[in-house]
Amino acid sequence: MRHVVSALAAAASLACLSAAVAIAATPKENHAAYVRRDNAMKEIGRSFYVGIGWVTQGKAPYSQDTVAAAENTVRLIPNMVALFPIGSDVPESHLKPGLTTDPSKVKELVEKVQKSAVSLVDEVKTGDKDKIAAIFKTVDDACQECHNAYRKPYPPQQ
Ligand code: HEC
Fold this sequence. Notes:
By secondary structure, the chain is an all-alpha fold. 68% of the residues lie in helices and 0% in strands.
């Protein structure tokens, strides 16, 4: 019994330790967390804006790749919850302050995107341009809700 208790205590203090470490991340770790977020956003952007968006704009033909892009988008969305750790709003990031200290807000915003994308794959599978454009807008609106509130503007494109 003593063994179990001390093992539990050890596990608990380890958990505390890693929680403390997570809060007091080094500048290098904070930068890495920002890079991870930036890369993850770009990956989802390639599937969503390029893979599907270009088809809605007539810049790319509809194909099985469009369906794969929809599946990839849906697969990547839940990962976004973990992209906003405390300290990751480093100066070089485009994340406005306030979100990293509010995990429930992150969860709420990501869940909205997830809900908006429930029928994304099915709609894209129809191959119907209007249907694809409509679901693209629904999902994009959910993405922009976070971008509008928490993403700093980028300099205008040249
Ligand atoms: C919870 C907030 C949040 C949600 C939800 C979110 N983003 Fe982002 N996104 C950001 C932030 C913040 C940045 C800026 C990254 C940085 O510099 O830290 C960003 C950057 C990006 C970028 C790279 C820069 C750019 O603007 O081209 C792309 C692409 C992107 N997001 C796509 C998406 C797509 C697509 C969705 C929806 C499927 C989405 N995002 C949902 C917060 C969010």
